[in-house]
Each structure stands twice: as C-alpha cells, then as structure tokens.
Amino acid sequence: MKRIFILLLLLTFVTGFSVSAEPKRIIERPFVPMSPEVMAQGGSFVAAAHGYNSLFYNPAGFAEKGSSVTIASLTTWIYSNPARAYGLLKGMSNPGTEMFGLLNDQLTSGGFGVGASMGIGITGRGLGLGAVFIMDSYLYGPTMLGIEGDVTGTLGFIGGLALPVNLFGLNFKAGVDVRPMIRIHAPLLNKDALGLIMSLASGGDVMAALNNATAYHGFGLGLDFGLSAAKGPLKAALSVRDLAGTRFYYSANSFKEVADSFGSNGSFPDGTEVSQDEYEYVIPMNISGGVEFHPDLEVLSFLIDPSVHADLQDLVGVIRDKRTPWTLLHIGSEVKLARIFSVRAGFNQGYITMGGGIRLLFLDVNAALFTRELGRHLGDRPNSGVTVEAALRF
Asked: Domain with 272 in it: what CATH number?
C-alpha cells in the first residue's frame, strides 16, 4: 500500500511538472491589411480572391483570369466611429480638452487605433509575389485608467504558385505560398497606453511616450494553402492561412533601443532572447470557406459587372474562443460600372459595411466604412473604422 501511495505522489508530481512546463501561448495579429476593397464587402474575399488582395486571403486567386501589377499601394485606417474619427483628426491640429474627451469616449466603447500598410505585388497566371509592410495598433479599456493595447509592425514577403486543373467539368485552382516575416510587437501595459494617449491628446511626442515599453522583435515563417472549384458563375473555395500556426521567435528590448538601433544601422539590437519553453508567440491557423456568384453578362459586362459572395471565416478560432457563430459570417457584394467605378456593400459579423472605388488608368482609389466585432458575442465590443487606399496598378 505504501509503494502505491509513493507511486501516486510521483505521478502527481510528474503530471504537475508537465503542465507547468507548457509554454504560455500569446496570440499574434494575422498578417492582413485593412483593405477597403475587402472591408467594404463585409470582409468576405475567400471565394472572390483575385489581384493584390489574394496575397492575404487565398493563394488560389493567383490563377484567376487576368493579371495585376501593383507598383505601389498605400492604405491607411483608423479604428473609430466615423463621426468621432473626423473630430479626432481635426483635433490633432488643435489638441486639448476636447481631444481628450473624444479619445475617452472612443477608448471605452469600441476601442481606438490607427494603422497603415505599404506594398507592392504581382499576381496572375499562377504567380503571386509581394512585399508588404503593415503597422497596426489598438487600445481599449472599460475606463480611461484601465486601457491597454499593443502596436505591431511587420514586414512580410509573399511568394506563391497556383495551378488550374479541369476535372469532372469543374475548374479547379489550387495555390500555396510561403511568407517570411520580420515583426516588432510592443504590448502596451496600462502605464504605456496612458502615456501614449496623454501625448496624443496634448500634442506631445508620441514616439517618446513609447520609449520604456517592451518591444519584442524577431522572425516568423507562414505557410498558406488555397483551393477553389468553379462551374459557370458559381464558385466554392477553401483557404487555410498560417498552416499549423505561424510561430515568431523573439528577443526583447525597450522600444527606444529598437528605434535607436534601426535609426543608426537599420537592424535589430542585441536583446534578451524570449524562452520558447515559457512563451509561444503564434498567429493561429485560420480555416475559412466561401462561395461566390459572379454572372458573365457578356457584352453588358463592360457597363455593369455584379458579384455576390459569402464566407465562413476562422472556423477553428470561433470554436476555440467560444465566440458567437455570427463572428464567422461575412457577406459581400460589388458592382463595377464601366470598369471605372465600383460600388460595394456587405455584412461583417452582424454589422453593415459599405464603400466604393474609382480607377483611372493606373490610379486606383478605394474607401470603406466598416464595423467589426472584437468581443465574444454580437454587441459586446463593436469597433468601427474607416480605411482608404491609393494605389498605382495595372
């Protein structure tokens, strides 16, 4: 009996040690810009993937009809109620009490953040190549004194191939890409977030407010897979982003040390390596499926070219995080007029989105209003935003 008792104690100790040794999993932002073309259409793009944005949604889109060369794309966005966003942008030229009040209202409701992306890309004829920098930030708290958030900057390179195959009367397309990335991730604790907001509201040095924040920097390698099957105007598609999870291998310094190192020699400083046994920084795998109806109006398609599509996105994440099924659903529509104007609308996780675009020769300008759900249930934390893109592409 004594031996059995000792054996049970040993098993308990070993089991407890194994559990405690499991690294803590930190969820990283996916490598996706807030594209106005996509966000105006409810975030739905898995089955409709084509052109530059197929680099971020479905590599099967590399084999879609037509080629796209993006010489330069600049996208900027703000996470704010559109009415407040106007006041915030206006207040930056005259900071003060009103600016602080607007920030307080936004931070304690849906949250506040800004972001931007710059990129180049070539897609079409089965090839997808791109180089894109994405900066994103988000702050939120139940009260101003309780806000936290993060700032992330990522430089990614995308290279992939897609092949069309005709089988059983269906037009299949299968694509894959690899995505090496360099990332700086600065989680903002309460004191850092407050310092940032105070600087923004008073017109102070925003970068200086981040000096003491911890900045993780390192590398990750993502792998994406996509598949589509079309018959006439109907298409179904599957996209697997960050296959098996994309892990980042980080070192840590202060934000100031990282900024100074890049300013002086364009590289990361020597930092404290983050133990992989204690922390695991991962972009989780995202499995999504979609359908599209895109009728060919033949001669009339030059004047009017409509399409409608829907996605169920991040099937694993919704189950893992116990989120409402509404957060799965993305519905989008687009009507191109005379191949110059585009009118777009959608339904993003239970919220209406809208936007449009104009294309004149090589200049492509797009804008969108959107709302996304950042809570577990519909209405928990709706976060609205505005995003605008200007691109040179043909």
From this structure: 2.40.160
What angle is formed at CA 33 by the lines to CA 288 and CA 219, rounded to 5 degrees? 90
Whether residue 3 is contained in a domain is answered as: no
Domain containing residue 251: 29-393
Does residue 11 belong to any structural domain of this protein? Answer: no
pTM (two decimals): 0.91
Q: Would you state the torsion angle of the CA atoms of residues 370, 85, 335, 346, taken in this order, to the nearest 10 degrees?
A: 10
357 part of a folded domain: yes
Q: Is 259 part of a structural domain of the chain?
A: yes
Task: For residue 338, give every residue at least 6 positions away whose Cβ sits within 8 Å of its Cβ, in sequence order, or none.
Answer: 302, 303
Q: Give DSSP secondary structure letters for 66-108.
A: S-EEEEEEEEEEEES-HHHHHHHHHHTTS-SHHHHHHHHHHHT
The pLDDT tens digits of the residues spanning 112-129 come to: 999 999 999 999 999 999
Phi, then psi, of 142 in degrees rounded to 5: -65, -25
Spatial distance between the Cα atoms of 273 and 290, rounded to a whole number of angstroms? 40
